[in-house]
Design brief:
The protein is of the alpha/beta class and 503 residues long. It has two domains: 3-164 and 429-446, Rossmann fold (3-Layer(aba) Sandwich); 166-198 and 242-416, Dihydrodipicolinate Reductase, domain 2 (2-Layer Sandwich). It is built from 15 helices and 17 strands.
Length: 503
């Protein structure tokens, strides 16, 4: 078992065994590290209050105190600023930390990808717990840095890939570990086309800065450039300098069950095997990236294919072997009790399924949980499109959907008769609640940086493959590509003077 997996499985129980019955927050050493008792509310600052920032702000506000708001775009953040009108508002995270730092216990961070590491590190260095929306970082070097920073500064961390807290995500891992589909040597991950710019062959035209936007603060660590309305409020995601395209937008979700179930660490190589309308400025219209991972314990080497923006009409679309008359990806929540509310379309964390202690696992033929069989809806074409993943094993095929919110075996007849394996993983109270519990001295959150850091690192390596052709051989220990200086220069961000990232 890798160091990451050992931490995932055992750190929580070890922590628990060392804490007296009065609770985690009652331990003086944990309080000294910035942890609060469970009965006390955290003082949370929200950095990024529009879009996803508003979502996670509201989740934190459901149980904790909101003491500061920060956003460079007051127009986009307007609904949140109105809702929390009594909370002080800042336009720059640095001034917020200077003026209100002593009041803040923890920060939620939901801003463009290129500023994630800069802002998170500044908060962590002041002893603030951090929840960072996905993707964790734009570059592999930043992902490694944040994982190291979490250890050095001893703060509770979480990446906002909410599928890690879903029941089906955990069930998928348990199915694979049970040996049901045998050895997995090939995986295919798919994401839908995004709404951000792709395939641009020239920089976007310069525009005037909107009145509500602090442009200098928005650029942050990035070298100065002419402002364009094509960057904000969301289109920055498609530009290499600012975002990670659909890798950060959706692959961080759909690859989650793959990373977890297969206990992936660092790949040995990455290569863009196909690109349509490649660009030096933005991500292409669609592409396929291949990553090669070495053996992990008893798990054999595995090839992971990432299909960016695949469509049914594309000649490159992946055809799942022998499944020509099957719908490939399962519906979300296909393990949930009928009629049970499981969150909402905004993507809030779903509550876990809870069985009484000692109760057998429920599956096909059981009570309370429906395991979908032949009637699954969707196009029965055998083509992989949409957001999800296909695990090709020596004994069968397993698929997951979206954030890991659905799982099943192919063909349908096999799933209809399947009984779920024994439960091995603990269940989550919800993605935000998981982090809040960790902030108060509880078990580390399920996507804390010791787990999400290595995950974000290999995803960011895939993003580099869009920009440098050929097979790129990766030396994880040295953090460099052994056969490409051009690719190695992209491992860490280029920042303007005064914004260097140091532990």
């Amino acid at each position: 078992m890798s160091p990451v997996s050992r931490r995932y499985f055992f750190l929580g129980p070890l922590f628990a065994s060392a804490v007296p019955s009065a609770g985690y927050g009652s331990v003086p050493s944990l309080r000294a590290l910035g942890y609060k008792p469970f009965y006390s509310k955290l003082n949370v600052a929200a950095i990024g209050c529009g879009g996803r920032g508003a979502e996670i702000l509201n989740q934190a506000a459901a149980t904790e105190n909101i003491v500061a708001l920060c956003d460079v775009d007051v127009d986009r953040a307007a609904p949140s600023l109105k809702k929390f009108e009594k909370v002080p508002v800042h336009r720059d995270f640095r001034s917020m930390l200077d003026k209100a730092g002593k009041e803040i216990d923890a920060c939620t961070i939901a801003i463009p990808d290129f500023m994630h590491a800069t802002v998170a590190l500044a908060c962590m260095q002041l002893g603030k717990h951090v929840y960072v929306e996905k993707p964790l970082t734009r570059t592999p070097g930043e992902a490694r840095l944040l994982a190291d920073a979490a250890v050095k500064y001893k703060v509770a961390t979480q990446m906002g890939n909410q599928g890690y807290s879903h029941e089906s995500h955990r069930v998928a891992a348990e199915i694979l570990w049970s040996g049901e589909i045998g050895d997995v040597r090939e995986v295919h991950i798919s994401v839908t086309p995004g709404t951000h710019p792709t395939g641009l062959q020239a920089p976007p035209p310069e525009s005037s800065v909107p009145p509500g936007l602090n442009c200098e603060a928005w650029l942050g660590n990035a070298p100065m450039r002419a402002f364009s309305k094509h960057y904000v409020p969301y289109n920055w995601r498609g530009f290499f300098d600012f975002g990670t395209g659909q890798i950060g937008n959706w692959a961080t979700h759909s690859a989650g069950p793959v990373h977890h179930a297969l206990q992936l660490g660092a790949p040995t190589s990455v290569e863009a095997v196909f690109q349509h309308n490649a660009s030096k400025i933005t991500f292409p219209d669609r592409a396929t990236i291949r990553l090669d991972f070495p053996a992990r314990g008893e798990m054999p080497p595995v090839q992971v294919y990432y299909h960016d923006s695949a469509r049914v009409t594309d000649p490159e679309v992946y055809r799942v072997p022998g499944m020509e008359n099957e719908a490939i990806l399962p519906p979300a929540d296909n393990l949930t009790p009928k009629g049970r509310p499981m969150g909402d379309p905004a993507g809030r964390a779903r509550p876990p399924r809870v069985d009484p202690p000692g109760a057998p696992r429920r599956g096909a033929g059981g009570t309370g949980v429906e395991v979908f069989g032949a009637d699954r809806g969707g196009s029965k074409s055998g083509l992989l499109t949409g957001n999800g993943a296909v695990f090709v094993g020596s004994k069968g095929i397993m698929c997951t959907t979206s954030r890991g919110e659905g799982v099943w075996l192919l063909p349908a007849a096999r799933w209809a008769e399947y009984k779920l394996p024994p439960q091995l993983l603990t269940r989550s109270p919800g993605h935000m609640a998981d982090w809040i519990r960790a902030c108060k001295g509880g078990d580390p959150a399920c996507s804390n940086f010791s787990i999400s850091g290595p995950f974000a690192e290999w995803l960011a390596l895939a993003a580099i493959a869009f920009r440098v052709p050929g097979k790129l051989n990766w030396d994880s220990r040295a953090m460099r590509f052994t056969n490409s200086m051009e690719a190695t220069r992209l491992v860490r961000p280029v920042v303007k003077p005064g914004w260097e990232l140091r532990l």
